Amino acid sequence: MARRATIIDLITDAFGDEWDVREYRPTMHGFDLAFGWPADQLRGPGQAGGPRAILTEDLVLYLAAHRDRPKDIQLPVGRTAIKRLRRILGHHWQIDRAAWWEARVDDLSDLTIEDFCRRHGVSAGAAVNARHALFGPALRPPGWWKSPDIAAIIISDRPRAQVAEELGISVGSLGRLRWQLKELKNA
Questions:
Q1: CA separation for the pair 34, 74 (Å, rounded)
Q2: Of 119, 74, 126, 73, nearest to 97 (Cα)?
Q3: What span, in angstroms and rounded, lies between the C-alpha atoms of 108 and 101?
Q4: Is 34 in contact with 21 (CB distance < 8 Å)?
Q5: What pTM was computed for the model?
Q6: Is residue 33 packed enough to be buried (19+ CB in 10 Å), middle (13-18) or exposed (0-12)?
Q7: H or E segment at 35?
C-alpha cells in the first residue's frame, strides 16, 4: 500500500499559484518555511515529484535581502534547494556582481584605486582585478621613459621615492630606468 501525504494547509505563493502544504519548518527569521506541491497535481515520480520549498512572500523578501551574500542564507533546507529557489527568482551572484562593477565603471576609470575603495567599500585587490578585467592591463607605450621630459625627471637629483610616486612606478623600477638611461648616455 502506498504512503499518502497529509495535506495540512493550502497557501498561495508569491507568484499567485496555490500550493498544498505538507510541512512547515520554523526559521530564526520570524517566518515558517512551507513545503509541499502545486495544488491539484499528481505527486510522485513522473508527476509533480517530491515536496519542495514554497516561495512565500516572506521567503522571497528574505532571499532578496541576501541576494549579494548567498552564503549568509540560513534556512532549514539544503544548499541545492536554496540554489533552486534563487534560480527561480533570477538571483545570480556572478551576474549581479558583474552588473555592480559595470555600474561603477566611470568611477573605476577616473578614481585612484584607494579613492574607489573608500567610496565603494571594496578591497584594493578587487578593484585592481575589476579594472584589469574591464579595461585590460595598463601598459605604457614602449620606450615611454626615454622621452626627454620623462628622462629628465628620472635622472634628476630628487629623492627616488618622490620621483617614483610622480611617475607611478616602483622605486626599484626607477633605479633600473636610471641605470638604463646612464648606460644609453655612455654608449
A1: 15
A2: 126
A3: 8
A4: yes
A5: 0.63
A6: buried
A7: strand 32-38
C-alpha angle with apex 52: 14 to 82, nearest 5 degrees? Answer: 75
CA distances (Å), 29 to each of 57, 59, 62, 71, in order?
Answer: 13, 10, 8, 16
> Which uninterrupted H or E stretch holds 1?
none
Residue 15 has which C-alpha cell? 507568484
Dig out the grid coordinates for 101 from the structure.
562593477
Provide the residue-wise pLDDT of the chain in tens; the chain has 187 residues. Answer: 456 778 899 999 999 999 999 999 999 999 999 999 999 888 777 787 888 999 999 999 999 999 988 899 999 999 999 999 999 999 998 888 888 999 999 898 888 889 999 999 999 999 999 988 888 887 788 888 899 999 999 999 999 999 988 988 888 888 999 999 988 888 7
